[in-house]
Sequence to fold (233 residues):
Amino acid sequence: MLTINAEMPIGLLVTEQLDRARIFDRLGIDFYSDGSRSLLEACTEADLDPDRVIAALHEAKSNSETQPAVVTDSISALIRDITDTHHSYLRRVLPRLEELVLKIKRVHGDNHDELCKLADLFQRVRPAMEAHLAKEEEGFFPLCLDLEAGKTTFPADGFAEQIAAHRTEHTEVTDLLDQMRELTEGYSLPEDACNTYQMTFNALAALEADMHVHVFKENHVLLAQLAEMTKTK
Fold:
């Protein structure tokens, strides 16, 4: 286990121990878009004291069972982890979440205009996520596996464009999730919130947290490995 210091890349910290993603999320530190930034740079952007953040990371480690490190031993193992963990989760929760979001809009929308906007945003998020999953599983991931196995090669420029397109789609989805969080003031519950309201907001917050880890694994680990691999082809 590495000793944490302010010069360490935040991506390395999360790769080594996944539960650090939860701490970064709670503190408002974006670890998933660009994991190459140092902890000091990320803290400066978030207007946080690096020493306090380091203390929070150490405290979380001592007070809870830590999640394992991100899979990095092979592209095929990482893709299997992404599909089994995150793609399966999304396919399970997205349909039910849409039902819940529309239900609280219907029941509470007259008193909470933001629920109408929230439903609109979610109905953009769900198809974007589902289309992205299909694109990865039907096209991009098989190409990645063939590249790893040496069954095919890609012109470096062309493959770089595919990687850039996936990064763009990740950004579009996380931007929508950011808008949902801002709209709901961090999924804060109003006084008249019912159990379904609370369950929906908890599920949306969980979706956001899972998506951040999902995007991190693809942006910082998978796409970085692929980009490095194509340089040597």
Remarks:
- The chain has a mean pLDDT of 89.
- The radius of gyration is 19 Å.
- DSSP finds eight helices and no strands in the chain.
